[in-house]
Structure formats: C-alpha cells, structure tokens
Amino acid sequence: MVSALFFIGIIVLVISVVTGILTGTFFGFIVALLSGIVSGMILFALSHILNNQQSILFKLHQLEEIHKKQMKQEKKKCTNCNYEYEVSLSSCPYCGRRE
C-alpha cells in the first residue's frame, strides 16, 4: 500500500507536467504543475504516515511478545499444593492459601 501510494504520487506529478504542457499557456502550465505537486505531496505524506504506522505496530507487537514471555516466567509455586500461579495473585487459585 505504501509503495502503491508512492508510485501513484509520481504518476500524478508526471501527468500534471504533461497536462500543463498540453494547455499551451504558461498560466495553465503553472496551475497544472502546482495542482500536481500538491496532489503528489499529499500522496507522499500518506505513504510516509502509513509506513510509520506499520513500523510502530511492528514494534508494539514485538513489545507485546516480550511482555507475554516475561509474564509466563514470573510464576509462584504454592507451598501447600505445589500449584504454579501468577505473581500478581495474592493467594493460590487452587487451594486458596495466602503467601
């Protein structure tokens, strides 16, 4: 999607230059060129925003995986029934013993 927006931006710029040349007037060329530049910049900005969003989501996914691995490692073992449970719990969910 990011590369498609980038290529569409390039195509819009090329089409605006060609359209400007085909108008035959200097004012028409400037108007077509400016509209193409503005449209191209919007598409380039959108592709940049989507690229940043994808990298942020990838990093968040990596952090989530690291967090899940850490939460799995932090477990307590009940001294009464030897049931393993999370550190965040104040008592054993199996037998109810508080530690």
Structural class computed from helices and strand pairing: mainly alpha
Helix-strand sequence: HHEE
N- to C-terminal separation?
Answer: 53 Å
* Principal-axes shape call: rod-shaped
Low-confidence stretches: none
Q: What helical percentage do the residues reach?
A: over 70%
Strand order of the largest sheet: 1-2
Structure in words:
This protein has 99 residues and is mainly α. 71% of the residues lie in helices and 6% in strands. The chain has a two-stranded antiparallel sheet with strand order 1-2. Helix 1 runs antiparallel to helix 2. The radius of gyration is 29 Å and the shape is rod-shaped.
List keywords for this structure.
2 helices, 2 strands, mainly alpha, two-stranded antiparallel ribbon, ABC-type transport system involved in multi-copper enzyme maturation permease subunit, membrane, transmembrane helix, transmembrane, 99 residues
SSE topology:
Layout: H1 2-23, H2 26-73, E1 75-77, E2 84-86
Antiparallel strand pairs: 1-2
Helix pairs in contact: 1-2
In short:
By secondary structure, the protein is mainly alpha-helical.
